[in-house]
Write a structure and sequence with these properties.
The protein is built from eleven helices and ten strands. With about 375 residues, it is of the alpha/beta class. It has three domains: about 70 residues, no CATH class; about 60 residues, no CATH class; about 170 residues, Rossmann fold. It has a six-stranded mixed beta sheet with strand order 7-6-5-8-9-10. α10 links the parallel β9 and β10. The longest helix is centred in the first third of the chain and has 21 residues. The two termini are about 45 Å apart.
């Protein structure tokens, strides 16, 4: 019975994954995905798949069972109501838990994203303890019960103290066996993502929501390709500063824009903490393309060409649509930095464009 239930559960999960694949573009744009992100699992509302369950009514209304009643009070609520009942069919919603790795795999398969080939492999090593055998001494927390039990049983049978009619096995000190381990050096590939975002007055809540969704899927795909990954966050108007994740997605300024300040801060961060020979470095900048001046835009291109692009895996520039921004920065990048393999740009005018933007960023597998 247990095996049959496991098979049915696996079949159901395959149905769910098929639905996610079919409607991936829609799921990429659902804001509630981010709100339900956990350490390892993310809940996705899947429409149209229903399993049997009890449904309970709303207990917020007054009446019998909600306080003191009086003789003659109606029990079933018949009689007066508030308008007629609805006639439209509802959508059945099931919360399905999918691991972030499964979600990233679906993303990679549907967008046909190649696996990333990290640089710096075998340059970083991490110590790991691996259980490699059995020994006669050790802490009780590592005692191997099965081996100890067998030794005790064998000893009692040899000396003739084991009674099959009253099978009692007593484990003595000499019977105990313990797991042993050794420390090994494991090749480790590290990566860091530096997110930069314009938070000037022209970047409103709608633009930040686009950034938030895209950053989530960027994170999901890169974490699927690396054992360890760090995320750093930089916000800027005319000045730039490193902030935490919460501040990155919620702060809003009301000043002008100098994009070069963010690039300089990112370069300082890399110089201080991330050796390009050992780290896989990804930079993503989100802006509406409105910069303080053409000269600053050209300075940004110079910083990218001479400092950043030579030391990182990928620079991705995502320009989100805004009614207040000029949107010219992406044009300057195209003019100044054409045909550079590890620099990719995308335009996101609405949530539907996130699908194509993610595919553009990672289609080269770098």
């Amino acid at each position: 019975m247990s095996l049959r239930i496991d098979k049915d559960h696996q079949r159901f999960r395959n149905i769910v994954k098929g639905r996610i694949r079919k409607d991936l573009r829609k799921f990429l744009t659902r804001g509630e995905l981010i709100g339900k992100e956990g350490k390892h699992l993310i809940s996705i509302p899947v429409h149209g798949i229903e399993i049997p369950n009890f449904r309970y009514g709303d207990n917020s209304d007054a009446g019998v069972g909600q306080g003191e009643g009086q003789p003659g009070d109606k029990v079933d609520g018949d009689g007066e109501g508030i308008g007629p009942g609805g006639t439209e069919e509802g959508r059945h919603i099931l919360e399905v838990e999918v691991t972030l790795d499964e979600l990233a795999d679906i993303l990679g398969e549907e967008l046909q994203l190649p696996r990333i080939k990290p640089k710096g492999k075998h340059r970083i090593t991490a110590e790991k303890d691996r259980y490699s055998g059995i020994r006669r001494i050790g802490p009780e927390s590592l005692r191997h019960f099965k081996r100890s039990f067998k030794r005790a049983l064998r000893r009692q049978m040899i000396v003739g103290t084991y009674n099959p009619d009253r099978p009692r096995v007593i484990i003595e000190r000499g019977d105990k066996m313990y797991r042993s381990w050794k420390t090994i050096l494991s090749p480790h590939t590290n990566a860091v993502i530096v997110y930069m975002m314009d938070v000037s007055g022209s970047m409103g809540d709608e633009q930040k929501e686009l950034v938030r969704l895209e950053a989530f899927w960027i994170d999901a795909w890169l974490r699927r390709n690396y054992q360890d990954i760090e995320s750093r966050y930089i916000v800027h108007d005319v000045r730039a500063a490193e902030v935490d994740r919460e501040t990155f997605f919620h702060v809003r300024e009301d000043g002008g824009t100098r994009i070069s300040s963010a690039f300089k801060t990112a370069q300082e961060l890399i110089n201080q903490h991330y050796n390009p020979q050992e780290w896989n470095i990804y930079l993503f900048h989100f802006s509406d393309g409105d910069n303080s001046s053409e000269s600053d835009s050209r300075e940004c291109c110079q910083i990218l060409r001479e400092q950043l692009l030579t030391n990182i895996n990928l620079f991705g520039y995502c320009q989100v649509a805004s009614a207040y921004g000029s949107g010219n920065f992406i044009n300057v990048i195209h003019e100044q930095l054409a045909k550079i393999d590890n620099m990719i740009t995308s335009r996101v005018n609405n949530k539907d464009d996130i699908y194509d933007s993610i595919k553009a960023f990672f289609s080269k597998g770098i």
